[in-house]
Specification:
The protein has 107 residues and is an alpha+beta fold. It has 6 helices and 3 strands; from the N terminus they run βααββαααα. The radius of gyration is 20 Å and the shape is elongated.
């Protein structure tokens, strides 16, 4: 694993690209202390659980749809719904008040 300071990374971002293309991890330090770890998204490390965590967080924050999450994890909608339930992430996100207001405006 290669280590690079954040200042050096700012001045030479090609180091990051080269490390990712070489399938290496890049440890980024700030003031001499470990700060971040960079790795390519196709790294097998993600298949062990980090990928699932990152993608479910992206879904929870609105960055991915349910379908995108299911496809990214190669799971059925039922399996994804079960996973989200276990993680206490709402499968459906809506505001009941907004729904009631919409219904009242239709009547």
């Amino acid at each position: 694993m290669q280590t690079i300071g954040i200042k050096e990374l700012k001045t030479n971002p090609a180091v990051l690209t080269k490390a990712m293309e070489a399938k290496e991890h890049l440890l980024i330090s700030k003031r001499g202390k470990p700060f971040a770890l960079a790795t390519a998204l196709d790294d097998p490390l993600f298949d062990l659980g980090l990928k699932t965590w990152l993608l479910t967080r992206a879904y929870a924050s609105g960055g991915l749809s349910l379908g995108q999450l299911a496809r990214a994890l190669d799971k059925s909608y039922t399996d994804i719904a079960k996973l989200l339930t276990l993680l206490n992430i709402p499968v459906l996100d809506y505001d009941l008040t907004d729904e009631l207001d919409t219904l009242e405006s239709l009547v």
